[in-house]
Automatic annotation (TrEMBL):
<feature type="domain" description="LarA-like N-terminal">
    <location>
        <begin position="28"/>
        <end position="161"/>
    </location>
</feature>
<dbReference type="GO" id="GO:0050043">
    <property type="term" value="F:lactate racemase activity"/>
</dbReference>
<dbReference type="Pfam" id="PF09861">
    <property type="entry name" value="Lar_N"/>
</dbReference>
<protein>
    <recommendedName>
        <fullName>LarA-like N-terminal domain-containing protein</fullName>
    </recommendedName>
</protein>
<dbReference type="InterPro" id="IPR018657">
    <property type="entry name" value="LarA-like_N"/>
</dbReference>
Length: 438
């Protein structure tokens, strides 16, 4: 039996929606194996630092990088070819419930196992202090990585979802927070995200000076969530060189078809945004505020002005870690029931962003959740609701757009309306039926 409050939305008319395809400028890398081989073969720092028989800790984080298992296996293979004895260290701060077993499990969900990588995974939450910042903050690093003969940093360079700074997500943050484990992440986040951009650089400088970091391997992705480039950065100048690649990564981001085309982020008003899934493989915040304009902190701004955001579910890979779904206005009861407080609260208490652990209004199903958003979006034209539906905030090649948006989209470069507008379809349980192209 439906709750009594459902009657308040059951007669809300939903706009007709048409399937739309966006085309983004994009460069694809060759195969992950070839991209890694060419990057490492062409980097003098690789030949200068790798010695036969040395143990090398390779960092792998909790994000769903494009071609992650293939990239890890390729890097391990290149290290072995040069005589090194590599092992993987999960470098993900407090993720995985801040336990060694949990972090190994996160890697497995991302497709990285000892079998897939071809080397051991050594997971521990134990850290050692390698210095202190001027403010007294302890700088800590994973003990197993510290004791290895060398450390190779591996991560994707990408705009962060909670702060703006010269260095955001990438090798610097992996070194400072990822390898700092729970204690390091706690220390860095304790002052709030207004300071994170500064602290990750200061902590990285301490670790580069005191730890055996050999070099970093970074990936850049294109707007289609595909591998675009693999680069090797030596420790000398790593912090500064990463900034150039961050600018490229920002320009590569996908976006909603709103606002001026010459800006990296969408802008302007939207009545309703429907997001099928949130998940850690899409963004550290579950859904990227660079896309939806709904940050959880004051340290980031920009993006569209969306009146109501609906989220329908959380991915299986996230195992209930729907951290950040608080930035939605309405969710489904299905998502509410999958929300894992253990994982979400651990993330939020570590980052200090408690609002990210909140839950929005939960409606019984997809239909009533969308109806609730349409009813309350404060549109002055209820007969012409501007609404976009996306699968998640990472994959934006295909989307559904309401009839009210079609005239503008038809004249927008890089956008093709590939289907007629039609009524949204739901099954007997109120779940959306309209599929996504494969």
């Amino acid at each position: 039996m439906q709750p009594s409050y459902v009657r308040l939305v059951e007669n809300v008319a939903l706009p007709k929606m048409a399937l739309v395809r966006q085309t983004f400028p994009a460069v694809d890398a060759p195969s992950p194996e070839r991209a890694v081989h060419e990057a490492m073969a062409g980097a003098a720092c690789v030949a200068e630092t790798i010695r036969p028989g040395m143990s090398v800790a390779l960092t792998v984080g909790s994000r769903g990088l494009a071609a992650l298992p293939e990239l890890v296996r390729a890097i391990v293979g290149e290290l072995r070819t040069r005589g090194a004895v590599p092992f993987i260290v999960p470098a993900m701060g407090s993720h995985g419930g801040a336990t060694a077993e949990g972090q190994t499990k996160v890697l497995a969900h991302l497709g990285v196992t000892e079998a897939s990588a071809g080397c051991p995974i050594r997971s521990s939450m134990e850290t050692v202090e390698v210095g202190r910042l001027a403010n007294g903050m302890s700088v800590r690093i994973d003990k197993l990585a510290f004791e290895a003969d060398g450390i190779v940093l591996f991560n994707r360079i990408k705009p962060h979802s909670a702060f703006r700074a010269p260095n955001e997500s990438g090798l610097v943050k992996m070194l400072s927070i990822g390898l700092g484990k729970q204690s390091g992440a706690d220390n860095c986040h304790a002052w709030g995200f207004d300071y994170v951009g500064r602290f990750i650089v200061e902590m990285a400088r301490v670790k580069l000076a005191t730890c055996r970091v050999l070099f970093g391997i970074a990936t850049i992705e294109n707007a289609y969530d595909r591998l675009s480039q693999v680069v090797v950065l030596p420790t000398d100048g790593m912090i500064e060189r990463e900034r150039d690649y961050l600018a490229i990564a920002m320009a590569n981001m996908p976006r909603l078809p709103l606002g001026p085309l010459d800006q990296p982020l969408a802008s302007g008003p939207l009545d309703v945004l429907v997001v099928d899934y949130v998940g850690k493989e899409f963004s550290g915040s579950g859904m990227d505020p660079n896309i939806n304009g709904r940050p959880s902190t004051r340290a980031i701004s920009g993006g569209p002005s969306v009146s109501r955001i609906v989220v329908l579910d959380v991915t299986d890979k996230s195992e209930g870690n729907a951290n950040g779904v608080a930035r939605a206005d309405v969710i489904t009861e299905r998502l509410f029931n999958r929300f894992d407080r253990e994982a979400v609260y651990t993330n939020s208490l570590t980052s200090g962003v408690l609002i990210a652990a909140a839950l929005p209004m939960a409606m019984p199903d997809d239909r009533t959740a969308i109806q609730a958003a349409v009813k309350t979006c404060e549109s002055h034209r209820p007969d012409a609701i501007s609404m976009i539906r996306i699968p998640n905030t990472l994959h934006l090649e295909y989307l559904y757009a309401s009839e009210a948006l079609l005239p503008e989209l038809l004249s927008r470069p890089g956008v093709d309306v590939i289907g007629e507008a039609r009524a949204m379809r739901f099954d007997g349980d109120g779940r959306l039926l309209d599929p996504w192209p494969h």
